[in-house]
Amino acid sequence: MSWTVADAVDHKGFPADRTKTGGWVPAALILGIEICERLSTMGIAVNLVTYLIGTMHMPSATSANIVTDFMGTSFLLCLLGGFLADSFLGRYKTIGIFAVVQTLGTGMLATVTKLPQLRPPPCKARNSCEPATGFQMGILYVALYIIALGTGGLKSSVSGFGTDQFDDKDEKEKSQMAYFFNRFFFFISLGTLMAVTVLVYLQDEVGRSWAYGICSVSMFIAILIFFSGTKRYRYKKSTGSPIVHIFQVIVAAINKRKMDLPYNLSLLYEDTPEASRIQHTDQFHFLDKAAIVASDDFVHPGSAPNPWKLCSVTRVEEVKMMVRLLPIWATTIIFWTTYAQMITFSVEQASTMERSIGSFQIPAGSLTVFFVAAILITCAVYDRVIMPLWKKWKGKPGFTNLQRIAIGLVLSTLGMAAAAVVEKKRLSVAKASGNAATLPLSVFLLIPQFFLVGSGEAFIYTGQLDFFITQSPKGMKTMSTGLFLTTLSLGFFVSSFLVTVVKKVTGNHGSQGWLADKIDNGRLDCFYGLLAILGVVNFIVYIICAVWYKPKNTKTAAVQMENTGNGSFAEEKC
């Protein structure tokens, strides 16, 4: 085995010495950034709605939309972070820059929540509250979206830079990579648990500014630790952004839209080495026109063609493969719309219910601990019980990725149905008690909706990740992961859109409708019921798309997962 890693360099640009760079220690330094990012983002998200309603005196629906827009933007900016990392900065610089951005954002949020001038005065009476001014909300928005920018940049590169520290051509390091992915998920879960328990408790009992200040300081320390490993990291050269490659095919196909495809498809342009070629397929013939050779494509004999004018068949087929993913991609968005309710309206429900255990009162935002627990329990049961039984019965090591997605969609739909039933009960108690500040109803009635949706995430997250990694081209793994993350982003944005539409449609003739400023005066159960119905319709469409989808050859997918090291994550995640 060579002392150097073939496709990696050290911090000086020389071939990376495997005895001095990479391995578990540098990867562990990178994990510190991830746990602090998760602590900050989830600690803010799960309890932000109570701050907006209780301190900033914003209406219920508006508060929910602010939270979902913040989370949606965080995930959407992963595409920007990935593009910058692939095309210009590299993963190391991207992590460093955006970690600093997030540190500044959480520091600013700590300041915003501390200064009394940046929030409205306390309510004089229960129904006499002065809402936050445009200036006060504007400063809050600036802090939140600086954090969203930092989160997006970090998420796009942390896992990739972690895997760069291992050589998948070396058996020992390949096994270490699998262990790294296992620990990566553990740290994500650990960060989330700390966020929804310790951090939320500090926000409610000590002060939000202290809690957010802890996030900022911890991220600053994580940055120092991250930079301390500069000399020990392995750096892999960027091969260019897959987004650019996709646009090149689309532009070339549009420019040649009036040209006819040759009768013999072997005349289409192909310059990819034989071992890496993808065979031509019959779908999406319009894209094939990008590979038609025109007289002016080669300016100089022997020179490479302009990729914006002529693309190889393999490059065209890569884009086709990404297009085939889109129906499955679209039908998984609704799950994350359901997920959004767990950190908005469900937390608001909890804030009105009895949360005391003896002398200790559970913070409303901490109810999401049942959500995280459901994920971990489901993963354990799946690994230790379902997979062995399924293998014994069917001879297969667990459900396929499409089956896991389907199970996740079903569980989330059942979660919304359960949420509708519980909310109907909560509203009847609220009406009977005259809208008391704390209803004589245990908050643990909300556990079924948290548990069902949490279990659904355990299946759908791993199913989506496995699907997008194994069914995408080898050169577009980063792009496919970004595509997966956009389902989370769009799910939050769809939630905001639905809330806005439902509030407008049901709030006519002086009525506040289903989503009133105070949930005790609305019909949140009807909104949950609407989401359950949409879940059923979406599931039917998903089944149609899953039947239509033609998966890649299993052997090819397995080889690509092995070559990229991403397969370990899909398997170890749950």
UniProtKB/TrEMBL annotation:
Annotated protein name in UniProt: Uncharacterized protein
Bilayer-crossing regions: 70-89, 96-115, 135-154, 184-203, 209-227, 325-342, 362-382, 402-421, 441-461, 482-502, 527-549
Membrane-protein topology: Multi-pass membrane protein
Family that this chain belongs to: Belongs to the major facilitator superfamily. Proton-dependent oligopeptide transporter (POT/PTR) (TC 2.A.17) family.
rRNA-binding is among the record's keywords: no
Compartment(s): Membrane
Entry keyword set: Membrane, Transmembrane, Transmembrane helix
InterPro entries per record: MFS_trans_sf, POT_fam, PTR2_symporter_CS
GO MF assignments: transmembrane transporter activity
Domain of life: Eukaryota
GO annotation terms (biological process): oligopeptide transport
GO cellular component, one term: membrane
